[in-house]
Amino acid sequence: MSISATINGPVRAVPTWPIYLGSLAYAGWLLWLGIDGRLGPNPVEALEHALGEAGLYVLIAGLAITPLRRLTGINLLKFRRAVGLCGFFFVTLHLMTWAVLDVQALDRVWADILKRPYITVGMVAFVLMIPLALTSNYWSVRRMGGSWRTLHKLTYVAVLLGGVHYLMLVKGWQIRPMIFVAIIITLLLLRLLKRPRAARS
Amino acid sequence: MAYRWKNTLKESDVTSEAVFLDRRRLMAGMAGSIAAGALAAPAAAMGPSATAEMGEPNSWEDITSYNNFYEFGTGKGDPARYAHLLTTKPWSVKIDGLVDNPGDYAFEDIMAKMTIEERIYRFRCVERWAMIVPWNGFELADLLALAGVQSDAKYVAFETALRPDEMPGVSQPVIDWPYVEGLRLDEAMHPLTFVATGIYGKDIPNQNGAPLRLVVPWKYGYKSIKSIVRITLTDREPPTAWNKYSAREYGFYSNVNPNRAHPRWSQEYEQLLGQGLFAEKIPTRMFNGYEEEVASLYEGMDLIEYH
């Protein structure tokens, strides 16, 4: 039995709900640390950054599922919806933390979205994810048919913009956001490789 | 010297760490019961006394755990984690250029000649956070007097130590190392311009720029260069680290100015540190609240252009 088959068997038995519960628990824990004064002298920034990074990590994990299957045969497709929705959950909390706890005024939020390119980019990424989150259910998949796949290709744009948003906001030439963007681009480029089945024939 | 800056705050105005921590605990408790907003301590409240206007100094913990010192890494906690690697004894500062007495000045010799006083200053980072810090140290003008500034000097250039073996952050080209800064001579001679060698009466920790760092309270924090190894008097405007990275974002002057946005973010408001998750932002003040003392230095200058 191949390694992928060995993994795929037990994975089929693993439910998806721990992903939702884990994400909820992590966000709740971060918020609690902040309220309890354990996020350092600048808890708003710490919370905002932790949520934004969690969003990026989770969305990048989501982008890795398809290449992983194509390259290794390991099939984690059943988790893709949960991963995508949890990524959206973290990004939404990140945005809310920024707007409510950080900027604290609607006019300033609006001004930043219009005037500050890294915020514009982040905001576009968020807006692109809204229809994806809304159609992440069996009913939408059935109703939309082929157009569902096309619509969900927006994920590629949204995650890439998320990485660029991070790259644009740091001071100096920092390596970390560059690594994030490089990983995202790699995961997107891997999709251009031929599918294994086509390659075999 | 024309006049010396009068510090209206005394050691007795500094909240002792114990009292501060008690207060902090109380506030943290309140934060738990009041779920949102309006909890911030009245840090910016105006009052007759300087203490009220300034607010409480931040805790030792806040001041020494949340730092930008990219030589030790770009994370706020990196300097506190890695700065212990820096050897600060022995330490000397090379003072050269347009001075009568150029040479290497040993840190101990400098300290022996300076009168150490306390200055409680607001410290405003370009990233929009602010602290109130009880520094100990001396006026830069007194150190420059020791070296004897020549009449054709117009600027002062500063340089931070660059030691790849002791500074894990410099392996990455975040900015062009070594870190350099500069002031116009009149800014450098201003009585507010301070060289800090301590905080809360203790030796300044490495993450805050030991053994001696500049403090220019009306400018963004990056002007207040840390762990200085060289001071050069010159007749032309010296290059400065962040200005070399992006002149559009970081000007030579870098005076705190709510009307001049950083291209990537507004500078109209700021976050005083240590106020909890639901703290209100406070308006940024021109020259970080030191307008009365320093505005005359820039008379007739367009502070948007010369930002």
Topology of helices and strands:
The complex is a heterodimer of chains A (201) and B (307).
Chain A (H helix, E strand, L loop, with lengths): L2 H11 L3 H19 L7 H30 L7 H24 L2 H10 L1 H18 L3 H7 L1 H7 L1 H16 L5 H15 L6 H5 L1
Chain B lengths: L16 H17 L16 H5 L5 H6 L12 H5 L9 E6 L5 E4 H7 L3 E8 L4 E11 H8 L7 E6 L19 E5 H5 L4 E6 L2 E2 L9 E3 L12 E7 L6 H5 L23 E4 L9 E2 L7 H4 L13
Parallel strand pairs in B: 1-10, 4-11
Antiparallel strand pairs in B: 1-2, 3-4, 4-7, 5-6, 5-10, 7-8, 7-9, 11-12
Structure write-up:
The complex is a heterodimer of chains A (201) and B (307). By secondary structure, chain A is mostly helical. Chain A has 11 helices and no strands. In chain A, helix 2 runs antiparallel to helix 3 and helix 6 runs antiparallel to helix 9. The radius of gyration of chain A is 18 Å and the shape is globular. The two termini of chain A are 22 Å apart. The model of chain A has no long low-confidence stretch (mean pLDDT 94). With 307 residues, chain B is α+β, with helices and mostly antiparallel strands. In chain B, strands 3, 4, 7, 8, 9, 11 and 12 form a 7-stranded mixed sheet that branches. Chain B has a 5-stranded mixed sheet with strand order 2-1-10-5-6. The radius of gyration of chain B is 19 Å and the shape is globular. Chains A and B meet through helix 3, helix 4 and helix 5 of A and helix 1 and helix 3 of B.
